[in-house]
Design goal:
By secondary structure, the protein is mainly α. It is built from seven helices and no strands.
Amino acid sequence: IAIVVILGAFFFMWKSNNADKERLAQAEITHQQKLELEKTQEISQNMLGEGVDPETVKKAVAVKLDKTNDPQPEQAQQLKDLINEWSDAVKVAGATSRIAVSQPVATMQEIKRKLSSAKYGGCIETTRLFYEDAMAKNIDGYLTFMLGKDHELKAMVLFHDYEKQIELAKSEQSKCSALNQQTN
C-alpha cells in the first residue's frame, strides 16, 4: 500500500509539474505578445501625426517588425534616384502657373507610379511608404488647386498635410542607415 501511495504521490507531482510547465509556457507566450503589441503601439505613436494615413503607418509598422527582409544597396540607390526626381518635379510644379501646371503634375504622377510599383526591404520600404503617401497628398493638392480659386483652401490643407508627411518621410529616411551610406 505504501508503494502505491508513493507512486500515486509521484504521479500527481509529475502531473502538477507538467501543468506548471504548460502554464509557464503560456504565460511566456502571452508576455511576448504583450511586448510585441507595446512595441507596435510605440512605433505607431511615433509615426502618427497630422495628415498621416493610419493605413500607411500600419504597413510601416509591419515592415519594421519583419526582420527577414533586409534592405539592399541597389534598392537604396533606386529610391534615392526617385526621391531626387520627385524633388525636381515638385520645384517645377511650384514654379508653374495654375493654367500650365498639368504637365508637371503628370510628371509627378509618373514618378509616384514608379515608386508605388517598387518594393524594397527594411527601412527602405518604410521610407518608400511614407514618400508614396506624401506624393499622393501633394498631387491631390495640385489637382485641387487646378480646379480654381474656389478650391484653394482645400488645396492649402492638402499641401499642409503633404508637408507633414514629407517631414515624416525625410525623418524615416534619415534613420535608415542603408539610405545614408555613400554609393560609388
